[in-house]
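U., I forgot to send this yesterday:
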Amino acid sequence: MVIGVHSAKFPSEKQTENIRAAVMRHGIHHPVVNDAEFIIWDHYAVRAWPTVVLVDPVGKVVGQQAGEIDADDFIPLLDAMIADFDRQGLLNRGPIPGLAPETAPGGLLRYPSKLLIHTGDRLYVADTGHHRLLEMQLSLDGFSGEIVRVFGAGEPGLRDGPVRQAQFHAPRGLALHGPVLYVADTENHAVRAVNLVHEQVKTVAGTGRKGVGRRNQGSPTEIDLRSPWALAALGEVLFIAMAGSHQIWVLIEEQRLGVFAGSGAEALVDGPRGEAAFNQPSDLAYALGHLFVADAEASAIRAISLDGDMRVFTLVGQGLFEFGDVDGKGEMVRLQHPTGLAVALPDGTGEGQPPLLYLADSYNHKIKTLDPTSGEVRTLAGSGVPGLMDGPFLHAQFFEPEGLALNGRRLYIADTNNHQIRVADLESRTVRTLALV
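Result:
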């Protein structure tokens, strides 16, 4: 029997309804305990996330290991234990009464995560919970969208080929270069390419296996990746937020793949790109010679200068255990697990003005803005209470929004746990739910 014990770091993760949503989002079928007060954590002397504890049929701890594991490493031990306790007649192979898996809701969308706008009227959606991508034709007013193409069979898997037969597994990040839509196929640990003209899908990076260690030799499709989460295309260069290894990788012309920034340590460390460290980077955005990074687990926004120096620096955020909901400037700002970024560049009348970053401050259930030159953060929309409510910016409600895409004066929001796309009208300062056809 597998029992998950959820001892949360973030306040938002201590709420049972949020845990239930995460269980459904990740397709978890074993029971999960909400250990909000760290009672089980303390009783088992746990000191790190994650920790695996093996308990025998009479309740004794027979093994414990901290850190990410490869399940295959435990098979010989489990096989030996099962055989031993079976001989002793101590195993109970019957089901535990009263347990039933959570059932994810139905609907056109299920846990949408990342968005991409193309040519002003096309919206691409990573329909993550349905393991597919959607192409929508937006209405003239931008408040409704007609689904015109579906990419993916809707069942989790790793299969190339025609778009309706191809398979993805929890796809997230999207980037467009010419007629090719690149996809961070997170649970497949791969990067896929959808040719929008020929309607074919192919794998351009990753093997389908989760990467372990630092091996990154060979062609892109011979290298194991680790939870690619977001993408940013700059010509023939595709940047990859590799959340599982806390790094930014780069794929060049679909021929060369490797680490671009990050030592692989989970920490908030600035400096030269090879020595810097990230914390589950979850989105990327490019503007004015900088690659901006939503460094989710550190509740930080980082930037990488793409000039000759190529250094990493922090705009807001203090580290893994400094989080909250505080607007302001610089060191006083607190976010809570931001996962989405969008950039507004100055128009022709805004000469000399800096770009403005929009942030999906996911665990605060808010959309915020960040001035990258002053470090000032302001709440744009969201009351901070999880829910689904349209209306004026500060009265509207979201539920762990993850992805953003800007289209003129409208900001499209992947409202992940609400299974909706929301539209923030920057002129009327109101939020509406996108009507889907």
